[in-house]
Amino acid sequence: MKRSLKVTIIVFSIILVIFVASEIVIPAVACRYIKSEVKKRYPEVKDLSVSIKSFPAFMLLFKKYNKLKLSCRNITIEGVNFDSLVLTSSFYPDARVKAELSENRINQMFSSTESFILNPKISLFEEKITVVGEAKLEIGTFDIFASGNLELRNKREIYFKPDDIEVLGTSSPGQVVDVIRNVALETPLLIVRKDLPVEIESIASKPKNLVTRGKLNLKTALKISI
Predict the structure, then answer these.
(1) How far is the C-alpha of 197 from the C-alpha of 126, rounded, in Å?
(2) How far apart are alpha carbons 53 and 50 in whole angstroms?
């Protein structure tokens, strides 16, 4: 075998080894770095998991990857304590998010100041909610207990779609129920806080938790850099 061919084979082998090693090492280092940054910024976080795929791996040096996934529990972002959070991204800094929020923390993420129900107490069940509060209407203020579901509009406003409404302290509950149904069509029950850097695309109720899905910016929302 000619010397030049041997040198070529050796050089190619070295390059191949370096390439294969980089495909393993660079993503691993990136994952450790992201986990470290998240734990530093959110020390209360639990069950943090990060995975990242990029081919070729050196593209991570330019903040490019095929898929990034981050999942965790008990993380507080902008004053909202999420029970669980799953982020997926294929292009930095854009990400899709699935977050679960317990019913007793709904007021951390949503405002009810514009609601027709004063200080609503919301209980969550499988694809159903109940609302207890004072309905402030043009014909008066009434204590109500209602059940139904939620509807997302304009990616920030959540409307209550009542199925059953019980009105207390009135001799004309039927009239009040009709007014509530009409008002509920036009007035949101909850509105996403304006300062939250998230765009909600869907919501769903499950026992004790509200599940939200949408989009966010990794850099501005979680302060994550790669």
Answers:
(1) 27
(2) 10
186 is in which domain, residue-wise? 104-192
Residue 128 in this model has a pLDDT that exceeds 80: yes
Element (H, E) at 201: strand 198-206
pTM of the model: 0.84
The confidence score (pLDDT) of residue 21 equals 47
Q: Quick one: 98 and 116 in the same domain?
A: no
* CB of 75 closer than 8 Å to CB of 86: no
Please indicate, yes or no, whether residues 108 and 160 belong to a single structural domain of this protein: yes
Structure tokens at 175: 């009239």
Number of Cβ atoms within 10 Å of the Cβ of 52? 22
Give residue 24's pLDDT.
Answer: 64
Question: Residue 160 in contact with residue 185, Cβ under 8 Å?
Answer: no
Q: Cα separation of 123 and 209, whole Å?
A: 9
Nearest CA among 167, 100, 101 for reference residue 132: 167
For residue 187, the SS3 value is: coil
What is the token pair recorded at 21? 């090693």
* Dist. CA 19–CA 16, nearest whole Å: 5
At residue 167, φ and ψ (nearest 5 deg) are -110, 135
Q: Specify whether the CB–CB gap between 98 and 213 falls below 8 A.
A: yes
